Amino acid sequence: MLTVSTVNVNGLRAAAKKGYLEWLQASSADVVCLQEVRAEPSELSAEVHSPLGWHGVYAPSSLKGRAGVAVLSRVEPSSVRVGFGASEFESSGRYVEIELPGVVVASLYLPSGDVGTEKQDEKDRFMASFLPYLVSLREKAAVSGREVLVCGDWNIAHQQADLKNWKTNQKESGFLPYEREWMTSVFSSGYNDVVRALHPDVVGPYSWWSYRGKAFDNDSGWRIDYQVATDGLAARARSAVVERAATYAERWSDHAPVTVEYSD
User: How many domains does the chain have?
Assistant: First the structure.
Protein backbone atom coordinates (compact mmCIF):
# COMPACT_ATOMS: atom_id res chain seq x y z
CA MET A 1 0.00 0.00 0.00
CA LEU A 2 0.96 3.61 -0.59
CA THR A 3 -0.79 6.01 1.77
CA VAL A 4 -0.64 9.73 1.00
CA SER A 5 -2.00 12.66 3.02
CA THR A 6 -2.25 16.28 1.98
CA VAL A 7 -3.11 19.26 4.18
CA ASN A 8 -2.90 23.03 4.14
CA VAL A 9 -1.44 23.63 7.61
CA ASN A 10 -2.26 27.37 7.71
CA GLY A 11 1.18 28.13 9.17
CA LEU A 12 3.31 25.15 10.16
CA ARG A 13 4.70 26.66 13.35
CA ALA A 14 1.20 27.50 14.59
CA ALA A 15 -0.13 24.08 13.58
CA ALA A 16 2.71 22.37 15.42
CA LYS A 17 1.59 24.05 18.65
CA LYS A 18 -2.01 22.92 18.16
CA GLY A 19 -1.72 19.24 17.27
CA TYR A 20 0.01 18.78 13.91
CA LEU A 21 2.98 16.89 15.36
CA GLU A 22 0.71 14.52 17.27
CA TRP A 23 -1.30 13.91 14.10
CA LEU A 24 1.88 13.23 12.09
CA GLN A 25 3.21 10.85 14.72
CA ALA A 26 -0.01 8.85 14.63
CA SER A 27 -0.28 8.90 10.83
CA SER A 28 0.22 5.76 8.77
CA ALA A 29 1.01 7.84 5.68
CA ASP A 30 4.07 7.14 3.55
CA VAL A 31 3.99 10.66 2.09
CA VAL A 32 2.59 13.90 3.51
CA CYS A 33 2.18 17.01 1.37
CA LEU A 34 1.95 20.37 3.17
CA GLN A 35 0.81 23.75 1.94
CA GLU A 36 0.90 27.25 3.42
CA VAL A 37 3.93 26.41 5.55
CA ARG A 38 4.65 30.16 5.86
CA ALA A 39 8.16 29.73 7.25
CA GLU A 40 11.73 29.42 6.11
CA PRO A 41 13.17 25.99 6.90
CA SER A 42 15.65 27.69 9.26
CA GLU A 43 12.73 29.10 11.27
CA LEU A 44 11.35 25.64 12.04
CA SER A 45 12.41 23.71 15.12
CA ALA A 46 14.25 20.44 14.50
CA GLU A 47 11.26 18.30 15.46
CA VAL A 48 9.02 20.19 13.05
CA HIS A 49 11.51 20.49 10.20
CA SER A 50 12.87 16.93 10.40
CA PRO A 51 10.43 14.67 12.26
CA LEU A 52 11.91 11.32 13.21
CA GLY A 53 11.49 8.83 10.38
CA TRP A 54 10.75 11.41 7.69
CA HIS A 55 12.68 13.03 4.85
CA GLY A 56 11.50 16.61 4.41
CA VAL A 57 11.73 18.77 1.28
CA TYR A 58 10.73 22.44 1.64
CA ALA A 59 10.04 25.16 -0.91
CA PRO A 60 9.51 28.45 0.93
CA SER A 61 8.22 31.64 -0.65
CA SER A 62 10.51 34.59 -1.28
CA LEU A 63 7.78 36.69 0.36
CA LYS A 64 8.30 36.24 4.09
CA GLY A 65 5.39 34.67 5.90
CA ARG A 66 3.53 33.70 2.74
CA ALA A 67 2.69 30.42 0.99
CA GLY A 68 5.39 27.72 1.19
CA VAL A 69 5.00 24.03 0.35
CA ALA A 70 6.69 20.84 1.52
CA VAL A 71 6.71 17.08 1.06
CA LEU A 72 7.58 14.60 3.80
CA SER A 73 8.34 11.02 2.79
CA ARG A 74 9.38 7.89 4.65
CA VAL A 75 11.68 6.99 1.73
CA GLU A 76 14.38 9.43 0.65
CA PRO A 77 13.51 10.98 -2.74
CA SER A 78 15.77 10.21 -5.69
CA SER A 79 15.30 13.76 -6.99
CA VAL A 80 13.58 17.02 -6.12
CA ARG A 81 12.18 19.84 -8.23
CA VAL A 82 11.04 23.25 -6.98
CA GLY A 83 8.74 25.20 -9.28
CA PHE A 84 7.46 24.19 -12.68
CA GLY A 85 9.41 26.39 -15.06
CA ALA A 86 7.32 29.56 -14.89
CA SER A 87 9.74 32.31 -13.84
CA GLU A 88 7.07 34.33 -12.02
CA PHE A 89 6.34 31.45 -9.68
CA GLU A 90 9.73 29.77 -9.22
CA SER A 91 10.32 31.28 -5.78
CA SER A 92 6.68 31.71 -4.79
CA GLY A 93 6.51 28.63 -2.55
CA ARG A 94 3.68 27.09 -4.51
CA TYR A 95 5.05 23.89 -6.06
CA VAL A 96 7.55 21.19 -5.17
CA GLU A 97 7.81 17.62 -6.43
CA ILE A 98 9.82 14.57 -5.47
CA GLU A 99 10.59 11.32 -7.25
CA LEU A 100 9.94 8.09 -5.38
CA PRO A 101 10.01 4.53 -6.70
CA GLY A 102 7.35 4.38 -9.40
CA VAL A 103 5.74 7.74 -8.67
CA VAL A 104 6.30 11.49 -8.78
CA VAL A 105 4.54 13.22 -5.86
CA ALA A 106 4.00 16.98 -5.81
CA SER A 107 2.67 19.46 -3.28
CA LEU A 108 0.72 22.35 -4.82
CA TYR A 109 -0.62 25.56 -3.33
CA LEU A 110 -2.51 27.25 -6.15
CA PRO A 111 -3.02 30.96 -5.54
CA SER A 112 -6.29 32.09 -4.03
CA GLY A 113 -8.00 34.85 -5.95
CA ASP A 114 -10.22 37.85 -5.42
CA VAL A 115 -12.42 38.86 -8.34
CA GLY A 116 -11.43 42.15 -9.95
CA THR A 117 -8.03 42.36 -8.27
CA GLU A 118 -4.40 41.55 -9.07
CA LYS A 119 -4.75 38.45 -6.91
CA GLN A 120 -7.18 37.01 -9.43
CA ASP A 121 -4.91 37.98 -12.30
CA GLU A 122 -2.04 36.15 -10.60
CA LYS A 123 -4.23 33.08 -10.13
CA ASP A 124 -5.20 33.18 -13.80
CA ARG A 125 -1.55 33.40 -14.90
CA PHE A 126 -0.66 30.50 -12.66
CA MET A 127 -3.42 28.31 -14.08
CA ALA A 128 -2.48 29.21 -17.64
CA SER A 129 1.13 28.12 -17.18
CA PHE A 130 0.52 25.19 -14.84
CA LEU A 131 -1.78 23.07 -17.02
CA PRO A 132 0.77 22.66 -19.85
CA TYR A 133 3.33 21.63 -17.24
CA LEU A 134 0.97 19.00 -15.85
CA VAL A 135 0.57 17.54 -19.31
CA SER A 136 4.31 17.42 -19.93
CA LEU A 137 4.94 15.96 -16.46
CA ARG A 138 2.51 13.13 -17.13
CA GLU A 139 4.09 12.42 -20.51
CA LYS A 140 7.65 12.40 -19.18
CA ALA A 141 6.73 10.25 -16.20
CA ALA A 142 5.03 7.71 -18.47
CA VAL A 143 8.23 7.32 -20.50
CA SER A 144 10.08 6.26 -17.34
CA GLY A 145 7.21 4.06 -16.13
CA ARG A 146 6.14 6.40 -13.33
CA GLU A 147 2.75 7.63 -12.21
CA VAL A 148 2.11 11.22 -11.06
CA LEU A 149 0.25 12.43 -7.96
CA VAL A 150 -0.31 16.17 -7.44
CA CYS A 151 -1.68 16.87 -3.98
CA GLY A 152 -2.64 20.13 -2.45
CA ASP A 153 -4.84 23.15 -2.04
CA TRP A 154 -6.11 23.89 -5.55
CA ASN A 155 -8.35 26.77 -4.31
CA ILE A 156 -11.11 25.77 -6.72
CA ALA A 157 -14.28 23.83 -6.00
CA HIS A 158 -14.92 21.87 -9.18
CA GLN A 159 -18.60 20.94 -8.86
CA GLN A 160 -21.69 22.05 -6.99
CA ALA A 161 -21.22 19.08 -4.67
CA ASP A 162 -17.84 20.53 -3.65
CA LEU A 163 -19.14 23.44 -1.57
CA LYS A 164 -22.11 23.94 0.71
CA ASN A 165 -23.29 27.35 -0.48
CA TRP A 166 -22.68 27.02 -4.20
CA LYS A 167 -25.63 29.18 -5.25
CA THR A 168 -24.27 32.28 -3.51
CA ASN A 169 -20.66 31.72 -4.60
CA GLN A 170 -21.02 31.56 -8.38
CA LYS A 171 -19.39 34.97 -8.79
CA GLU A 172 -16.72 34.39 -6.17
CA SER A 173 -13.14 33.28 -6.77
CA GLY A 174 -12.84 29.57 -6.27
CA PHE A 175 -16.14 28.79 -7.96
CA LEU A 176 -16.06 30.94 -11.07
CA PRO A 177 -17.27 29.18 -14.23
CA TYR A 178 -13.91 29.49 -16.01
CA GLU A 179 -12.01 28.22 -12.95
CA ARG A 180 -14.27 25.18 -12.86
CA GLU A 181 -13.76 24.66 -16.58
CA TRP A 182 -10.00 24.78 -16.01
CA MET A 183 -10.33 21.99 -13.44
CA THR A 184 -12.32 20.02 -15.99
CA SER A 185 -9.42 20.53 -18.39
CA VAL A 186 -7.05 19.11 -15.80
CA PHE A 187 -9.27 16.07 -15.37
CA SER A 188 -9.50 15.52 -19.12
CA SER A 189 -5.73 15.67 -19.65
CA GLY A 190 -4.89 12.27 -18.19
CA TYR A 191 -5.47 13.10 -14.52
CA ASN A 192 -8.20 12.04 -12.10
CA ASP A 193 -9.91 13.50 -9.04
CA VAL A 194 -9.24 10.54 -6.76
CA VAL A 195 -11.53 11.48 -3.87
CA ARG A 196 -14.49 12.25 -6.12
CA ALA A 197 -14.00 8.99 -8.02
CA LEU A 198 -14.25 7.09 -4.74
CA HIS A 199 -17.17 9.21 -3.48
CA PRO A 200 -19.13 9.97 -6.66
CA ASP A 201 -22.59 10.60 -5.24
CA VAL A 202 -21.94 12.51 -2.03
CA VAL A 203 -21.87 16.18 -1.12
CA GLY A 204 -18.29 17.01 -0.15
CA PRO A 205 -16.49 15.59 1.69
CA TYR A 206 -15.39 19.13 2.52
CA SER A 207 -11.80 19.84 3.46
CA TRP A 208 -11.87 23.56 4.37
CA TRP A 209 -14.13 25.55 6.67
CA SER A 210 -13.86 29.24 7.41
CA TYR A 211 -12.92 30.19 10.96
CA ARG A 212 -15.73 32.74 10.81
CA GLY A 213 -19.16 32.06 12.23
CA LYS A 214 -20.36 28.48 12.61
CA ALA A 215 -18.99 27.17 9.33
CA PHE A 216 -17.24 24.17 10.88
CA ASP A 217 -20.04 23.26 13.29
CA ASN A 218 -22.57 23.47 10.45
CA ASP A 219 -20.26 21.65 8.01
CA SER A 220 -20.55 24.64 5.69
CA GLY A 221 -17.32 23.98 3.83
CA TRP A 222 -15.50 23.68 0.53
CA ARG A 223 -13.72 20.74 -1.05
CA ILE A 224 -10.63 22.42 -2.48
CA ASP A 225 -7.91 20.02 -1.32
CA TYR A 226 -7.38 17.35 -3.97
CA GLN A 227 -5.29 14.31 -4.77
CA VAL A 228 -4.96 14.39 -8.55
CA ALA A 229 -3.46 11.24 -10.04
CA THR A 230 -2.63 9.77 -13.42
CA ASP A 231 -4.78 6.88 -14.62
CA GLY A 232 -2.69 3.97 -13.39
CA LEU A 233 -2.34 5.28 -9.84
CA ALA A 234 -5.94 6.49 -9.66
CA ALA A 235 -7.13 2.99 -10.53
CA ARG A 236 -5.27 1.72 -7.47
CA ALA A 237 -7.01 4.08 -5.02
CA ARG A 238 -8.84 1.98 -2.43
CA SER A 239 -10.03 4.47 0.19
CA ALA A 240 -10.16 8.20 0.71
CA VAL A 241 -11.04 10.06 3.86
CA VAL A 242 -11.04 13.65 5.09
CA GLU A 243 -9.62 13.59 8.62
CA ARG A 244 -12.05 16.13 10.01
CA ALA A 245 -11.46 17.09 13.62
CA ALA A 246 -14.06 15.84 16.08
CA THR A 247 -14.66 19.35 17.45
CA TYR A 248 -13.88 22.95 16.55
CA ALA A 249 -11.45 23.15 19.49
CA GLU A 250 -9.41 20.20 18.21
CA ARG A 251 -8.64 21.78 14.83
CA TRP A 252 -5.01 22.65 14.13
CA SER A 253 -5.77 24.25 10.75
CA ASP A 254 -8.79 25.59 8.89
CA HIS A 255 -8.21 22.67 6.48
CA ALA A 256 -8.34 18.96 7.30
CA PRO A 257 -5.95 16.31 5.99
CA VAL A 258 -7.14 14.39 2.93
CA THR A 259 -5.74 10.83 3.06
CA VAL A 260 -5.86 8.21 0.30
CA GLU A 261 -4.70 4.61 0.31
CA TYR A 262 -3.40 3.17 -2.97
CA SER A 263 -2.83 -0.55 -3.45
CA ASP A 264 0.45 -1.96 -4.80
Answer: 1
Give me the pLDDT at residue 142, please: 95
Which residue range forms the structural domain that includes residue 186? 2-262
**What length is written for the chain?**
264
**Cα 99 to Cα 146: distance, rounded to the nearest angstrom:** 9
Residue 153 is a catalytic residue: yes
At 264, the pLDDT band (50, 70, 90 cuts) reads confident
Which of 109, 191, 226, 262 is catalytic? The answer is 109
Please return the burial class of 181, using the count of CB atoms within 10 Å of its CB with bins 0-12, 13-18 and 19+.
exposed
Share of the chain above pLDDT 70, in %: 100
Q: Is 199 a catalytic residue?
A: no
Query: Is residue 36 a known part of a binding site?
Result: yes
Annotate 11-70 with DSSP letters as a single string: SHHHHHHHTHHHHHHH---SEEEEE---S-GGGS-HHHHS-TT-EEEEE-BSSTTS--EE
Consult the annotation and say whether 192 binds a ligand. no
Per the prediction, the chain carries an average pLDDT of 97
Q: What is the CATH number of the domain that holds 44?
A: 3.60.10.10
> Is 109 among the residues known to form the active site?
yes
